[in-house]
């Protein structure tokens, strides 16, 4: 899998609340899933801003916004880029 080393324990993207910025650490899916995320610009190292998390997530990557289902968000492991979510 694609993984970035880090000392914090990564959690699924679906665990983070609105307003939190996270860094993607790894993707836990097959080739098709990873290819779809790559087309959105979601790769290890990418910073994601969580805009909404109420079942379906709305996220911002750079200047683009995307909606992700809960299953998809559960397969993206990330860590917060600030110390607010430890």
TrEMBL record:
In its UniProt record, a GO molecular function of this protein is: transition metal ion binding
- InterPro entries given for it? Fe-transptr_FeoA-like, FeoA-like, FeoA_core_dom, Transcriptional_repressor_C
Arranged from A to Z, the UniProt key words for this protein are:
Iron
Boundaries of each Ferrous iron transporter FeoA-like domain copy? 11-80
Matching Pfam families: FeoA
Q: What is this protein called?
A: Ferrous iron transport protein A
Native source species: Maridesulfovibrio ferrireducens
